[in-house]
Structures are given as structure tokens and as C-alpha cells.
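Issue 218. Parser rejects a valid record. Input:
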Amino acid sequence: MQSRLGFIKIGCLAFGLLAANYSRADETAKAWSAISSPSAHSPESIGGYTHGCLRGAQALPLSGPGYQVMRLSRRRYYGHPDLIDFIQNFGRSMAGAQQVDLLIGDLSQARGGPTLSGHRSHQTGLDADIWFMPLKSGARLSQEEREKLSAAPMVNLRNDQLIPGNWSARQAKMLEAAARDAKVDRIFVNAAIKRELCRHKTSGSSAWLAKIRPWWLHEDHFHVRLVCPADSPHCEKQDSLPAGDGCDASLDWWFSKEAKQPSKPAKPAPPQPLPAACEQVMLE
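Output the parser choked on:
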């Protein structure tokens, strides 16, 4: 009986500590989300993609050749200059090659850091969400449309099949163009999209196709992640990509019962603490 009571006490203590960690994480996210302007310093991405911050961020202009920014009220359109350059160059490329405007989702907050909703990454100004379904060039969205328009899914999540009429060679070309950029480290997509790209791969596609990584959801947008910039010595690199193009048996796992998310997923572990340098970034 005593050992059982001891076990219960330990369990309650562990639960209390976990709840306290989540409470502190929420308070930290609130503090970072409340900052509305970048720091006036040279650009630097600090820490890891899921536990870091951004010094000297640049704001992506809300509209530009080949792109329009969505969900303006979230104020997550800041990034390291490398990310801003990537999006602007990518937009111009798509405007020229496909006569479309890309719809840009979240980048980072004004000084990076954790957000209150939507992401565990996007903290260092090196991540960007881009909707799969672009607009025809010249179709300008109102501010209300940018807030309320929903991204069109490419995949039916019930059966892991691409949706006819939504997915096309256009989306495949968008992914290839983005992945061929030397500054792109990897791109996260739904596993069904990776499988489709693998089905149509060519002898010259291995290098860029390796950067296309399967991940849960991501059926209506792709998540571009850049490499650590040369001006950011405290940026934490992600592990190197596995050998090969990712079209091997490892892809099959994503369609297994084990990989399927439960209807009520377990609460994730508390986030890692931010680097000490991020405390200074908040005060700058």
C-alpha cells in the first residue's frame, strides 16, 4: 500500500512539473508574440529551428512580383534576409514560368521565438509555408480574402490519395524549383506528395528530390527550410539528410498503421529552452 501511495505521489509530482513547464512555455510564447518590431541589429539566426530567435529580421513586403502574403493579422511575415530573398526570387521565377502568384503563409515573428499557435518551428527566420494552390497572375486578394481564404488540399487524408483537379504538374514543378535552390535545406510535404514525385522521378532528379521530406499533414502547403546563413555562427544546423533520394522503403513507413496519427495525439514534450542570447534579443 505504501509503495502504491509513493508511486501515486511521484506521478502527481511529475504531472505538476510537466504542467508548470507548459505554463512557462505559454508565457514565453506570449512574450515573443507581443513584440511587434525587429531588433535594430545585423541579421542573425540564433539557436535551432524549434528553439531559437531572430536578430535584425527583415519584413517581407506584403505583395510583390509573383507572391502575396496571407493571414496578415498574425504578423508572421519576418525572416532572415536569406529567406526574404528566397521568397522574392521564387515569386519572380513562378510569375515568369507559370504566370501565377504564390500565396505565402507563416514565416517568423518580428524577433522569431516561439508562437502561441501553429508551429513549434519557424523560430529563427529560416522557415516559410507556401500554399500549393497559387493564384493566376494579376488576381489581387483583398485584406479580408487574405484572412479568410483557405488553402486547397492536395491530398485526401482519409485515403492518402491525391485529389484530382487540385494536384497537377504545376505543383510538382513548384517543388522542384524551390528544392533546386542551394539555400534550401529541405522541404516538408505530405507523404502522398513525396510518393507521387517518386513515381515520376527521372535520372536527374535525385539531388533535389532528396530535399523533399515527408511529414504529417502538409496536404495544403509546403514548408521550406533554409540552411543556416553564413552570418549566423550560433544557428544550429539540422541533421544531414539520409543518403539517397528518399524513394526507398523508408517512404512506405509513412503509410503504415504505426505512422498514422491517433485521433487524440499525445501531448508533445515541453519545448527546449531558448539560447541565452535570445534574452538579449528580446531587450534590443
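Fixed in the parser; the record now loads. Residues 41-283 form a domain with the Muramoyl-pentapeptide Carboxypeptidase; domain 2 fold (CATH 3.30.1380.10).
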